[in-house]
Amino acid sequence: MIPAVHPRGTNVGGLLRYLFGVGKREEHVRPRVVAAWDGAGPLTGLQPPAQAGGWHDVRALTELLEQPVRAGRNPPRKAVWHCSIRNHPTDRVLTDAQWAHIGGEVMASVGLAPHGDPDAVRWLAVRHNDDHIHLVATLVRQDRRTVWPWQDKRKAQAACRDLEERYGLYRVAPAGAGSRRWPSPAELNKAARLGANNSEARASNARSGSRSGRTVAPREVLRRQVREVAAIATDERDFFARLAHAGVLVRLRHSTRDPGQVTGYAVGLDGHTTAAGATVWYGGGRLAADLTLPQLRSRWTGTPAHPGGSTASRLAGTGMIPPQLSRHAAETVEEAAAAMRAAPSPGVAAAIAYAAADLLTATAWAWEGRTGGPLTDAAGWFDLAAHDLRGRVPARRVWQAGHLRAMARLIAVWGTLSRDQDITDALHLMYTLAAFAETLADLREAQADLRQARDRLYQARAARSAAGQLRDYRPPAGTPGRGTAGHAAPPIVPDLRSTDRRGRHR
Description:
This protein has helices at residues 12-19, 43-46, 59-71, 96-109, 152-167, 185-194, 199-207, 218-232, 236-245, 284-287, 293-300, 311-318, 325-341, 346-368, 374-386, 399-414, 422-447, 453-472; strands at 2-5, 32-36, 80-86, 121-128, 132-141, 249-254, 262-268, 282-283. The longest helix is centred in the C-terminal third of the chain and has 26 residues, at 422-447. The chain has three domains: 2-167, BirA Bifunctional Protein, domain 2, CATH 3.30.930; 185-298, no CATH class; 302-472, no CATH class.
């Protein structure tokens, strides 16, 4: 549940005309008042009457909201407060009464209309469609005193996190949890305005079951693509070659002192431009804290080898893809899970979980292709649970992490299931990854303390969501992979999602 506190305004009548109109893209379906201030009377009396032509007469409602401002002792110049609240596309449809309760809780939390205060500001909640409401208030109390909201954005966010728990809705990560950089409201609005201009955005939008036609922001598309490539790349050169092969625009940043030294990179999508026609570039750090070039370099170097060699290393050294790769991958995951449970320090456990996220990301990319599917969704949840807070990359180098990443590269080359008997091995790999996710959830819960309890518990829930989706996943039968371990770019994998796959885990 996402609240967006908008800049304060001066014209409450103009805002009401917009809210009871068709909207910028005709997205205002059945606008109606679902909640109002104490003492406002029946909601049916507040509902602006519809006129010929489909417009609503908001003059009476505007007058009611403006009365305290006109009678105020020292009314502010910008007396109109506006906040929109939207839930996740996968959430169930809430009733008007439930949205009314949500609106009242947010208004009380930000301090504009505390519960039991008959002289609080006048406000109302206007509902559109099934998934969002708008809160409108004037910042003068009915006892003529002005209210000056303080930290209203933070308080609205905290109220929505609590309401997600109480209503069992999709839980948004607390600020700073996980590794990704979330799209700004401007980016989301631009994506919705322009529509899905690429296959990844259309596929993600369809997969999410969006009821309101929202699309995926380019930042999210690029973050997923860059993370998929980083999970299977062997070094810096391979990383940039794979990005180019995937159709991602890449711009390198060179050192001012040594022009031959690459110090960073930025990525963009073909067709995603500014109003002037220039490509919109995102540095790796603007996608996720662990996708900067220095952080990526740290994952490609310094992993010690096991004295006896690993299964993944031996298979990679043969230059051939074995027919039972899923079984070998499951064995590698089981070894890594046991090592994570017995890890002597949080840094070692985090390094193993971080590499396991790469393995699941590579598996999802290989089996479902660029358009994604339920396994890609599970990888997203696992990613949130595995990556450390604030996106810090674990400094410890453990050989189990190297084995997981070597297996991820083999799966990326392998591409798809090769024979029908591999279905059993593939299911075993999914169950093994689900058990790893449950172990990771237990670890995150054990790490919760008074300072980071909320963040860690969110990561634990994300891990359990990933485990649930992995247990429900049914891999489709595919065709033999055509890649070899020596290729610099991954093979093009068709979308092999089954038509009867289950919905998203809630």
